[in-house]
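Lecture 7 notes. Example A: sequence first, then its structure tokens.
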Amino acid sequence: MQLGKAKRLVVKVGSSILIGEDGALRRDWLNALAEDIGRFASAGAPVINEKDTVATAELRFGDNDRLAARVAQMASADVLVLLSDIDGLYSANPHTDKNAQFISEVREVTPGIEAMAGGVVSAVGSGGMVTKIEAAKIALAAGCHMVIAPGKGLHPLAAYEKEKRGTWFVASSTPTSARKHWISGAIAPAGVIVVDDGAAAALKSGKSLLPAGVKSVEGHFGRGDAVIIRDMAGRELGKGLIAYSSEDAVRILGHKSHEIEKILGFKGRNVLIHRDDLVLR
């Protein structure tokens, strides 16, 4: 990973506030986050933060490490970089144990790795190496590599490339495959989309689902919910995360993508379900 090649950008900055709910992000905040991430392409960079005065003790992440991991998860990021005053993971506390060994690479967060960090963090714990290990578990499950590197001084990424001092947590899957595994097994479907033969063939060839190929919409669902996709014979083709609510999906079904803005009055995505958000049977 060439962290030192990261470029400095002069961009517009927008702020987003996230609140944790039962250890996960609420769907409405995920939708807002998805919009913010989209601004990267238009010279805007979202700054994501948890506002302590809004989040209660029960509904909070409690640390920037896990918050960053959740954002990386939803962005399907390849790498998460945690810059810290800690230069990485040690086998023991290096301040109290002169025999502590530096760990340069971790491929699985085992109980032994957690013990090196000082134990498992509580649901509302904060700070230190413990929360960085918790962040690593989130990132690796999402197919995202993570590195803990020194953040002191100027140009820390370039300094890391030169010194190579840090701990890499190596994911065993890609963000896309991890995301599709999550969609396939962890999310209950909220509705059904019936597609014509042309759309069914397009999906099987790796295309996204366009509104033009949709014949009917069943159920009540919101943007970002999971839906089942069926063909005209009732056969299940797969499951995916839909980009429009059931009400809006009904209004645009059968129409071309360039007609969406005129029909709905706002510019949304050109597809109902993107191929990265789709798992076929």
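Example B, a different protein, same format:
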Amino acid sequence: MPDFSMSHDTARLHRLIPRIALSGAGALGLMTALTGCTNQAYDSFAPACPITHIPPEAADYTLYNGKGTTFRDMVVHASIVRLQGDCLPGGEKNLKTRIVLRLAVERGPAATEEKISLPWFIVVMHGDKIVNKHVFHHSVTFPATFSTFQTGTKVAIVDLPIAPKSVDPGYSFEVGFQLNKDQFDYNRQHMHTATYRAY
């Protein structure tokens, strides 16, 4: 399995590189859009989406204050609890995939700021090769009245250079938190049964 805690040089891996962008719309906008349709012939039926996978090692994000790894040293802990998305044509030779994460967030005793940024990634795989990767930063503000809450990311859009009518089975997505080596190793040592749901 690829090491998703590291960055990857994808310049030489594929001639047609998928494009990844972040939309200003949130999860509510995505789910509203799922009920819509267009008049173009190739939009008669929603195209199939590439398989999307959340590696268990990347489903949790824990940040400590650098003084230890006990609960009192924890700044924030976040878990992916749900992945939603859909696919639609972006033209006759382009497949557009939209992805939203639902996160459960816990503020730790060591948090000193009201806001924090949670990094997450989308990796585009073709076979066993990484052809593109993008890291997003989801900013959250800790509520004043409680320490645990849920939040949704903005919509991430991935454009694949394939015809919507015939999805290339070689394409797939890996989605998770962007971790440093210590976080990645900690998750591998303390993995538990995942509770997230994917579309």
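Note on Example B: The helical segments are 27-33, 181-189. The radius of gyration is 18 Å.
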